[in-house]
Amino acid sequence: MRILYVTTVSITMGFFPAHFNMLLEEGHTIELACNCEKPLPQSCVDLNLKVHNISFSRSPFSKSNIVAMKQLENLIEDGHYDIIHTHTPNASACVRLVCRKLRKNGLKVFYTAHGFHFYKGAPLKNWLVYYPVEWLCAHWTDTLITINQEDFERAKKHMHAKNVVYIPGVGINIEKFSNVSVNKAEFLLENSPVSVSDDDMILLSVGELIERKNHESVIKALAKIKDRNWKYFICGEGALRNHLEMLVQDIGLTDKVVFLGYRKDVAKWYAVSNLFVFPSFQEGLPVALMEAIASKTLVICSNVRGNVELISEEFTFHPTDVSEILEKIEFALSSPKDVIVENNYNNLRKFDVLSVNELLKKTYFDKTR
Q1: pLDDT of 222-256, one tens digit each?
Q2: Nearby residues of 256 by Cβ (< 8 Å), 6 or more positions away
Q3: pTM for this prediction
Q4: How far apart are the C-alpha atoms of 101 and 92, rounded to whole Å?
Q5: Upper half-sphere CA count for residue 229 (Cβ side, 13 Å)
Q6: Which of 22, 198, 210, 254 has the least C-beta neighbours within 10 A?
Q7: Domains observed in the chain
Q8: What is the mean pLDDT of the chain?
Q9: 121 phi and psi, to 5 degrees?
Q10: Would you call 232 helix, strand, or coil by DSSP?
Q11: 337 phi and psi angles, rounded to 5 deg
């Protein structure tokens, strides 16, 4: 079969190499379509797949999406694809609008919703902008794949796709993170921009420095910690870096809160951390949180969709409640780590990439669908 994967921007393709490999091993042809202003992740480049540059914009109101739809129409008409698997809201809306008539010729359209922008507690504008588009486009979707239970239940009830299925994320290579071996003292000596003592508790967050990731609440909570030595490292880049650095400076934590930027060695940072903190306002099914769990690192997280499928309630907090975040940090660091970590790790097994690939393969090729 000829399968076209579509995302809005190139970096998102980095979530799918395991899917590509599985399909290639099965003898299928894979091509990619996305905005290629930024280079593809190396894991995709190494597969030497054919890539089509489509002028998608992340903004749903950009005129470049109209250009993208014309480019898509030409590509799909010439490509003779059997399956188009689309991801991310803007690209997926364009794909399904273009394919609404082409599906009559046997083309199958699969759409993975990596967390609807409308969700329990979402701003009203999200419901007004995104819900009508997703509702309409579902009519032109052969299989709508959801990655968390909240979205699955909503899609089954309100979205009129031909099929609605649940697949637990894009899959995580559990062994890649659980088998990391690192000398903590040596690693921190070589990689930490600040001095770390033997009795410092190492806290870590991984995520873009943007409002949705909510690093500010954790920083404010840590400012209230007493009688405990700690360092807080944040891996990620983003528009809020200057704002967060100024906040850290204003509350006198410049020797304790460290912005590491983008890191390729994040698996080692999980391994040397005492606690992983994940405070997002919104998630579909968070890869960084799963990576931390796979690394057998103690974790706490916000009590939002996606997160709550990975962690028991006692280790979650409301993302805006600074006092509760502090309470959960102290609670986690004082809890019996081994039992908690093992329970989280065992729960993660159903999200392993091999399990996810088998479900995806069945979804693609099950003749009863």
Answers
A1: 999 988 899 999 999 999 999 999 999 999 999 99
A2: 194, 222, 230, 231, 232
A3: 0.88
A4: 15
A5: 6
A6: 198
A7: 2-171+352-365 (3.40.50.2000), 174-350 (3.40.50.2000)
A8: 94
A9: 90, 0
A10: strand
A11: -60, -45
